[in-house]
Amino acid sequence: MTNTVISDLLVIGGGLHGCSAALFAAKRGMTVTVLEKDEVGQHASGTNAGGVRRLWRDIKEVPLANLSMEMWKSISEIVDDDCGFQQVPQVKVAECSDDMELLADRVALMKKSGFDHERLIDRNEVLSLLPAVNPRVEGGLVSDDGFALPWHTTAAFARKARELGVRIDTRTEARRIQKDGNTWRVTCSDGEYVGAHLLNCAGAWAGQVADQVGDNAPVEPIAPLMIVTQRMKPFCDCVVGTARRPLSFKQMANGTLVIGGARLGRVNTATNRTDVDFSELKHTANTARDVFPIMSKAVIQRAWSGIEARMPDLLPVIGRSEKHENVFHAFGFSAHGFQLGPATGKLVAELIDTGQKAPEIEPFGIKRFSAKPDHSQLLGM
Amino acid sequence: MIYGVHCKDTVQTHMAILTNRLDETLMYQRLLSISDPVKFTFEGQTLTAQAGESVAAALLASNVESFRDTPVSHSLRSPFCMMGSCFDCLVEIDGQPNCQACMTEVRDGMEIYRQRGEA
Amino acid sequence: MSSVDLGIVGAGPAGLAAAVEARSAGHSVALLDEAAHPGGQIYRNIDHAGAKQFELLGPDYAYGKALTKAFGKSGCSYLPKSSVWHVEQRDTGFRLSYSRDGRSHGVDVGSLIIATGALERPMPLPGWTLPGVTTAGAIQILLKASATVADDLVLVGSGPLLILLAAQLVTSGYPPRAIVETVPLKNYVRALPRVPFNASGLGYLYKGSKLLARVARAGVPIFRDARDIVIEGTKRVEAVSFRSKGRAHRVETMSVGLHHGVVPNQQITRLMRCEHVWDQRQHAFLPILTEDGETSVHGLFVAGDGGGIRGAHSAEIAGRLAALKVIERMTGESQAAVKSLRKKLKRDASVRPFLEALYPPFSEALVPSDDTLVCRCEEVTAGQIRDAVRDTASEANQVKSFLRTGMGPCQGRVCGLAVTELIAEASGRSRNDVGYFRIRPPLKPLSLNELADYETEAQ
Ligand SMILES: Cc1cc2nc3c(=O)[nH]c(=O)nc-3n(C[C@H](O)[C@H](O)[C@H](O)COP(=O)(O)OP(=O)(O)OC[C@H]3O[C@@H](n4cnc5c(N)ncnc54)[C@H](O)[C@@H]3O)c2cc1C
Ligand code: FES
């Protein structure tokens, strides 16, 4: 390919956030091109646990998560595909009385901030929601959340975006990013792309993209570990975590159990390589068995990890670049960005198109990481 | 012409003979009689096997036809590879589901059940 | 956590020969195998087989006795019934995690030889999932391990192993009811110029013709050039129907044995992300190896059929060769026997071009009809895979994400190559571009209890 592709918006990264922003920008009439170095959804977006969770989010994220939840409920209208989305309760169980206090404090904090979707429940109510749970639990915290199929969801957003005219070039790595007058010129392995606007949705690789436009983003690549078991008879129709121990536990429609939660493998972003660390996953297995004794009959089918971006404050970067009017960011979702996909894409597209910054994304500016020397001069831009 | 091998045109004529033959035929035959017996149960029925052989071999030699039905469509399956790769021989042994019958040595007193759908 | 100089996975001829070689040079060796006894596929159960089995299986089987005997005396730490479920690279070599009698353990090894042999090539034909349909290998395993035979077996497919099995069954007094042979007639002409005119090659051909003669003498009907093969039945197999030389046939039977070749077992080399490349002659992916069997991962070797199908004798030579390479690395002394073993290996492989030309995979099983199940575990049909390709998926791993092919318990061991073939056919892309399933640990399903109780330490 030698022709230069010219668009209103160039998106770097074909994960859920890149595809979602592209879809909403196309709906607003922009011409959009997405550059993806591997395949759509190959990394965090296609390999995550699929939790559509609001429970226990940082207060700053709650408004955005609430908006996204409304969009999930009508996800078929957005992408013509149900994405395997199921609305189910999300329960955080308390394994001891200290845990109960922790959960009660949380409810109080939420109330003070005007949110009432997280509810404290007692032991009996936990047992009626989760008949297979260890009867020793003390109680729990519940909210009306859900889960979806990550890879299918990302593929559905990409498919719909393409239908709306978005060009998605896979196996196309953005190597050099240069300002060219008022536009951005991106050099890939096999061609050049020019965009009036640039959006950085490069996940674990977003730090390098930010660096090229002179923004500072301390992105740490991580590899959250997941387990999936063989099919079991249905025994759990909530998404389950615990108050203190890392766990994310759900039974899919086909009967398999998908288990994860904050345990990390090893990752190399240059080679896309992740290594599963069973000395970590062993703890996940232990927690799952403690919470659901029936899991002692489970058989692990597969373990894997995807490559995700983590920020020091565990909050994403969403908004305009510190240095350039026409550069935007949406990355660093720190292992909980799947739920935020629909709303973030919508609000970022709005920001790019109209310049209006919605209050839901206000807290996530990249400025919070500034105070570092300006690299743009060093790079000769 | 030997039994059961024929061109389509003659299917009808041979059908009667064939049905007879199938009635008498067992799927599998032991060439040696059991010298070192092991007793176990399958679906509650007591069966005998030769010590040292796999659960799958023991069940096949007892002419058990299907070992499990699939979690996806509940269709019947029996061992396909006998070497641990296909997982079509899954049974429940002493309460533990998802056991590969072809990779498990049969033992005295084992209680074996078909695996029905998901565990 | 115990640790040894050399780890070997697989106790077939390749693994056993490697162990004996490394032990004779005084190195510590651990050999792990899922099976209860040494021997691998070809010499399965050899230390416990009775006179009956030796009589049926012949001198090629009995040959293995010497190997297991040498192995038994070698002082190798032997871990039978041990299923390796994970291999990790470490600074000092590799760590193997394995399951034995319901508990998991780890062993650290300096170098590693993978000798996990071959798997049957997938043969998706209509009805191949019915009870009573097995691989031909399964029938042979029943014979070797339990002296049990199928009463009215119909063999479907092609290849030397199919003929060997038929001959063994003839000797057992239970000849197969019929052989439905899928070799196109023109192949006999095509293979002729590749007849290996050397002692080793002609030896193999002579043995093969004797087996064929034994089958023919027993009056086993052979239907040549078979096509349009359908395995019929509702709750179990009832018949095989097909066309042979222009005529329709239907053979009633209670058991069908399928075979059209074996292919390297790639599970561990894929897990370790060794480089693989499509080999058109073997019609399979092979790990890229040096002359002495080292993969693209330093210190990780493959010996035997896992590196390309060459048979038991070659496997034994390759096992010794890989072990000598490991010894050279550890001692810094070059090993005199390397050169002659390399030569032997070449000579022993001279019959392969002939066999590969005569017995290519059966085309109907490479591109099955739309309603044929390809992935047995998740029950995905060829038609669904073709639809997924139409719907933009053009790689094995995309189809896996789309349809769950290869996500069931067999992890693609049975369907993997069939899925690659289908995608290649439907998309027009090369098999190297289509690729193969990414293999994730555990290599075999692992009980959650076992992981929770696994005593291991972090790196
Ligand atoms: C079903 C079948 C039947 C065959 N029949 C014949 C025959 O009759 N005659 C003939 O000449 N050739 C036959 N072959 C081919 C012959 O087996 C090979 O050419 C030769 O034995 C290759 O030797 P090997 O050492 O490479 O592999 P193998 O003998 O297959 O040994 C590999 C070993 O690795 C073990 N293993 C695999 N994965 C793991 C794991 N994750 N953890 C622990 N252990 C593992 C297996 O249990 C096996 O014991 C057959 C092949 C197959 C597949
Ligand atoms: S028969 Fe294939 S795994 Fe047991």
Detail the topology: elements first, then pairings.
The complex is a heterotrimer of chains A (381), B (119) and C (459).
Chain A: E1 4-12, H1 16-27, E2 32-35, H2 44-47, E3 51-52, H3 62-73, H4 75-79, E4 86-94, H5 97-112, E5 119-122, H6 123-129, E6 139-147, H7 150-163, E7 167-169, E8 174-180, E9 183-188, E10 191-200, H8 206-212, E11 220-222, E12 225-229, E13 239-242, E14 248-251, E15 257-260, E16 266-268, E17 273-275, H9 278-291, E18 299-305, E19 308-310, E20 317-320, E21 327-331, H10 341-354, H11 375-378
Parallel strand pairs in A: 1-2, 1-10, 2-7, 4-13, 10-21
Antiparallel strand pairs in A: 3-6, 4-6, 5-6, 8-9, 9-10, 11-19, 12-15, 12-18, 14-15, 16-17, 20-21
Chain B: E1 5-7, H1 11-24, E2 28-30, E3 37-42, E4 45-50, H2 55-61, E5 68-69, E6 76-77, E7 90-93, E8 96-100, E9 111-116
Chain C: E1 2-9, H1 13-24, E2 29-32, H2 51-57, H3 59-62, H4 64-73, E3 77-79, E4 82-90, E5 93-100, E6 103-114, E7 118-120, E8 133-135, H5 136-146, E9 148-150, E10 153-157, H6 160-172, E11 178-181, H7 186-191, H8 199-217, E12 222-223, E13 226-233, E14 237-244, E15 247-252, E16 255-259, E17 262-264, H9 267-271, E18 276-279, E19 284-287, E20 300-302, H10 311-331, H11 337-348, H12 352-358, H13 363-366, E21 373-375, E22 380-381, H14 382-390, H15 396-403, H16 416-427, H17 431-434, E23 446-447, H18 448-452
Parallel strand pairs in C: 1-2, 1-6, 2-3, 6-20, 8-16, 10-11, 10-16, 11-12
Antiparallel strand pairs in C: 4-5, 5-6, 7-17, 13-14, 14-15, 18-19, 21-22
Helix pairs in contact in C: 1-4, 1-10, 6-8, 10-11, 14-16
